[in-house]
Design goal:
The protein is 61% helix and 11% strand. By secondary structure, the protein is mainly α. It has a single domain, classed as lambda repressor-like DNA-binding domains (434 Repressor (Amino-terminal Domain), Orthogonal Bundle), CATH 1.10.260. A two-stranded antiparallel sheet has the order 1-2. Helix 2 (18-25) crosses helix 3. The longest helix has 11 residues, at 45-55. This is Transcriptional regulator. GO terms for molecular function: DNA binding. InterPro entries: Cro/C1-type_HTH, Lambda_DNA-bd_dom_sf.
Amino acid sequence: MAIIVDLDVQLAKHKLSVGEFAAAVGITPANIAVLKNGRAKAVRFTTLDAICRTLQCQPGDVLRWVPDDEADDG
């Protein structure tokens, strides 16, 4: 199972820096980096809610699932 976090796309759309976004969401820039780099093992619903509220988007705009064989390719 591979869950891909597309925060970079959303941050670019909204012209937000990682620091600005982290402050708006209420988590550290280091934790944003963990999410962006795909190293997160879990995301709290409260964090996902804050991300979606800040970006005015749906969870599916930030998270997507790809099958294992596609995740291995890239």
